[in-house]
Design a protein that fits this description.
9-stranded mixed sheet; single chain; 10 helices; alpha/beta
Length: 253
């Protein structure tokens, strides 16, 4: 693809005016400079569009797409479908990528051509404080999704051919945890990895999906786990599924 960037950073933004500038600043400050930044304004009713126009006037690498309200899954797919880079990096509209994130993830994928997707560890800030450390090797990451989501969405980077050639996408049937289902789909087909490096600051706010939609998210995650068991030939009844659900250790991301 002529003049295609190395990385396409994809964001879906809905009423993200408050924190979006910090997110954009962190991405524009990356030490890797060969990227495009695609932001889908998902029908925001606040000042999100004005923020995007202001940043777009400053940096021509920013591409803004406004197609009305698509919902999180639809907006995420729209952003990735417009990606022209060899790699797609995801970011939520309120998280902060540390300056070396892109260059470290690209270097990892270049050095490990068999790996289709990688995430990173993260520092939690905002209403909660702490660290997110996930399994790093592919074998563990094929088993872990049976119990919890072992990837952090905002730290994800994968080869764009997964979307453009292999048919991977966010599944609207699992809208409250569509990233979880995407990880399961990719890990089923390809080796995946997490880098044991803190390359992201993960913000938790009073309006975070992980807080405001916790019950719906847990129900969706439960169904994703049930379908994984069914694919393995296990048909759990309601009690068995509840026991299995209780073994999960992490629902954020």
């Amino acid at each position: 693809m002529r003049n295609a960037p190395l990385v396409s950073i994809c964001i879906s933004a809905y009423n993200a005016e408050r924190f979006l500038p910090e997110t954009l600043d962190s991405l524009l400050a990356q030490t890797l400079r060969d990227f495009e930044l695609i932001v889908v304004n998902d029908g925001s009713s606040d000042g999100t569009q004005e923020v995007l126009e202001r940043y777009q006037a400053r940096d021509r690498r920013i591409r803004v797409i406004s197609n009305g309200r698509l919902g999180y899954t639809g907006a995420a797919n729209a952003a990735c479908q417009h990606a022209r880079g060899r790699y797609i990096a995801r970011s939520d509209a309120d998280d902060i990528s540390l300056p070396g994130r892109l260059v470290r993830q690209v270097a990892f994928l270049e050095a490990n051509p068999e790996v289709a997707m990688t995430g990173t560890w993260a520092v939690i800030f905002g209403l909660k404080r702490g660290e997110l450390r996930f399994p790093t090797d592919s074998d563990s990451l094929k088993v872990a999704p049976l119990f919890y989501n072992p990837f952090l969405h905002s730290s994800g980077m994968w080869r764009s051919r997964l979307f453009h050639e292999d048919g991977v996408s966010y599944d609207a049937r699992f809208s409250e945890a569509s990233d979880y289902q995407l990880w399961v789909d990719v890990a089923r087909r390809h080796p995946v990895a997490n880098m044991p490096e803190f390359l992201l600051r993960y913000r938790v706010t009073s309006t975070s999906v992980t807080l405001s939609s916790a019950m719906k998210q847990r129900a969706t995650a439960k169904e994703i786990r049930r379908l994984q068991l069914v694919a393995l030939g296990v048909e759990p009844d309601a009690r068995e599924l509840e026991v299995h659900q209780s073994l999960g250790t992490w629902d954020m991301g």
